Amino acid sequence: MEKSCPADDVNFGNESSRPLRCGATMTSDRSHCNQIPKAYIRPLSERPRLDEVALSDDISLIDLTDLNGPNRQLAIHQIQRACQEDGFFHVINHGVPDTDVNTMLAVATEFFTMPTEFREQFYSEDPSSVVRLSTSFNVHKENVCNWRYYLRHHCYPLEKYIDAWPSRPHAYREVVGKYCREVRALVIQLLAAISESLGLEPHFLDKALGNHAQHMAINYYPRCPNPELTFGLPAHSDPNALTVLLQGHVSGLQVLRNGRWCAVQPIPNAFVVNLGDQLEVLSNGIYKSAIHRAVVNCSEARISVPTFYCPSPDAVIQPAPGLITCDNPARYRKFTYEEYYEKFWSKDLVEKTCLNSFTTDGLDANTTAPDDK
Locate the Fe2OG dioxygenase domain: which residues (predicted)? Predict the structure, then answer.
């Protein structure tokens, strides 16, 4: 029998107050519900099957202190192995102060306690909006809604976008702006290390991303009365180059390892780093773009803060020439990031990746998922 438990105080409302089309504006109804509305219930074949998820305690944990000392080559080797085998890893001693991580989580949580009327001014169905509040991936494609809210905005160059960000909570722009600068510095360090791990010049990936772009999201997953029936976010790979995730203390991230879903437990003061589609292409398929998903629970709301580091729209993405050989010919064609990004947002998450639309003839992307679609 499917269990149910009380919904969170901030919930998606009852079915009559929320249109079935995904992504409709948030209801102000704060009533509790004992089961999720039908619009959020996945078909049986698409449900998360939570009892089959593995608990992984062997996910790579890389101490970035080693990148700046005599153990640099050890850290480079650890990054290489994690990128080849999984496409994701944890990092500690990453240079973002614990106080800034904690204030980022605090202001993220506080944003979702702001009055509904304030938050709804940022609602948009346009994925290209520089600031966007929504619950949906693609409102025009999805048949089943996701159990989450999110605020997404651009953040590099910071001075170009910061004035469009929410002015409340009072410290939002100051706290988030500082956090964005610190995470960008971390990403630049990681790009150099990943380049080296591929046998490329340290600045190769930095240059390949053109003028760079950076987006971030604040995901809020309310408590869910029937977590086994829905997703916070279904399986997908990220379209960007590199994602740095601040998890908070509540578990919910799951990644695909060797054909099986594995829970990634939060580690205090650590980030999860996962490779996006652009790094799979630039590495000519040597490294994996990680397929992952977010599940929900009935006990506690969850906050996560992913930073998406991207090529600039005009950057031309193609496999690194030094990684194309007779044994490993070019797996992907040349394209601009703008072309890829438009393709990504034009689909829904029934397709877990759109890499296959950019492979050379006769080759498939190496990112596969179990038959849960």
Answer: 212-311
